[in-house]
Amino acid sequence: MRKESGPFGMNELRRSLRTLLGLFSLTGWALAQTLCIPPAPSGTPSRPLTGYSAAGLEAYDRVMQRLLERYRIPGAALAVAKDGRLVLSRGYGFADVRTQEPVQPDALFRLASLSKPITAAAVLHLGESLVFQGVYPDLNSFLSEKAFDLLKIQPYGGKLTDPRLKNITLRDLLQHSGGWHRGWAGDPMFRPTLSDVARALHRPEHLSSREIVGYMLSRRLQFAPGSRSAYSNLGYAVLGLVVEKLSGQPYEAYVRAMLQPAGIYSVRAGKTRLQERLPREVRYHDFPGAPLVKSVLDGTLVNRPYGEFYLEAHTANGGLVASAPDLVRFVVALEGLRGPPLLSREALHEMLRRPRLAQYQKTPRYYALGWGVRVPQPQPAVPPLAGAAGQGSSEPRNPAVKPPLVLSLPPEQLEWSHDGAFAGSRTLLLRLPGGVVLAALFNSRPWNDWRFIAELRQGLENATQAVPHWPDYDCF
C-alpha cells in the first residue's frame, strides 16, 4: 500500500526545490562573475587588449582593432549591452603612448558632443521634477518656456540686438532650432569665431559659457527661432546655464546627482590642461603631423587637445568625460531596463519625437531632443516575374514596389545615436533596434574624420548583425 505524503514530506520537497533553484542561481551568478572579471591584458605588445567579451562577439574586436591600425589611433574603449545586460567591455591599444599604459575598459574619455544627450536628459529630468512640484502643468509647458526669460543675462553693450532672441524656447535649444547657424556666422564656442568674440570683449580666449552667451545676445540670429534646425553648440551651452538657474546647483553637480541612482558614477566635467587629467582618464593624441597651436589659456604652444579650446566653457555642449560602460548604462537607464528609469515613458517619447520642422517632415532621419534618430524603413517588395518563366529566365521582373515612408515608431524600434569630436577625441553612442547599445570612445581624431566615423558605425552595425547567439550573463 502506498504511503501518503504528509505535511512534513511536502515541506521537505519544497526545501529541496528551493535548494536546487538556489544552486542554479548561484551557478549563473558565479559564471557571470568569472566572465566579468577582466583577465590579464592580451593582444600583442604593440596593441594590447583588456577587458572581457564572449564567444560570438569576436567581430567587435576585429572592427576596433582594424580601425586603430588603419587610422593610426593609439587607443579606444568599447562597451556593448543587449536587452539591458552588459555583455562586452573592452580596452584597445594605449591610454598613453609615452608610458605604454593600456586602455582599461572603464577608462575615462572626453565625450565632446556626446555630452549633448546627457544635457538633454538633465533638462527633461529637471522639467519633470518641476512639473511634479506644480511649477509647470506639464512637460510641454516647461519646454515652451522662453530661455532668456529664465536666465536674465545682460547682453554685451546692454542692448538686445535681435528681438527674436526673446522667442527662443527650451525646445528650440534642445532640437537646434534656436536661430544660430554656425555655417553662416561661425561657432562662437571655437576658434576662429571665439577669437573674434574675445577681441570684442577685450578678454583672453578662455571665456566662460556665460560670457560667450552674453556677447551673442548682442548679435543677430541667422533665422527665426523654431523655423528650422541648424546644429548649435551655443544652444546647448545655454541649456547648461538653464539647468544651473532652475536647479540652483552647478551643472556638473545636477548631472551627477541625476545619474548616480542609476549606478553611473564616471560622468564629470573635464579639464583643458594635461596636468589636470582626471584619475583613469586617457591621454589625448592629435593625428600624426598635426601642428601645435597657441593655448587659449596662456598663449604658449601646445598640442591641440590641450589648449586649442577651453573645455571648461563646453561642459554642457561637449565638456563631459565618462567611461564606455557608463554611457551604455545611461541608455539602458533611459529605457528603464534596470532600476528606476531616468525619465518617464512620456518624457522618453518626447525626447525621441520627430520635431515639427518642415525639413524633417518627410525624412527617415531627424534630430530630436538631444539625439539623432533614424526610423527604420521596410524593404521594397520585389514582385515575382510577370510571366510563368522559371529560374534563369531573361524576362524582366516587375519594378520593386516602394513602401510608404514610415514616420514614427515606438522608442524600442528606433535607432538613436550621437557622436562627438574634438582634437584628440572621437566618440559614438549608438542604440540599435533589437535592444543593442554600443559606446565606442577613441583618444585621437583622424584627419579624415568623416570617413572614419562612417566606417566605425557601419562596422559596429555589421558586427551586431553577425552575432550568432547573445550571451545571457550581465556584467553591469
What would you say this structure looks like, in words?
The protein is α+β, with helices and mostly antiparallel strands and 476 residues long. 33% of the residues lie in helices and 15% in strands. The protein has helices spanning 7-36, 58-71, 115-132, 139-143, 147-151, 170-174, 182-185, 193-201, 209-216, 233-247, 251-259, 324-334, 345-352, 449-465, and strands at residues 42-44, 47-52, 75-82, 85-96, 101-102, 109-110, 268-269, 293-294, 301-302, 320-322, 365-367, 372-374, 415-422, 425-432, 436-442. Helix 2 packs antiparallel against helix 14, helix 3 packs parallel to helix 10 and helix 9 (209-216) crosses helix 10 (233-247).
What is the strand and helix layout of this fold?
Elements (H helix, E strand, L loop, with lengths): L6 H30 L5 E3 L2 E6 L5 H14 L3 E8 L2 E12 L4 E2 L6 E2 L4 H18 L6 H5 L3 H5 L18 H5 L7 H4 L7 H9 L7 H8 L16 H15 L3 H9 L8 E2 L23 E2 L6 E2 L17 E3 L1 H11 L10 H8 L12 E3 L4 E3 L40 E8 L2 E8 L3 E7 L6 H17 L11
Antiparallel strand pairs: 1-2, 2-4, 3-4, 3-15, 4-5, 6-10, 7-10, 8-9, 11-12, 12-13, 13-14, 14-15
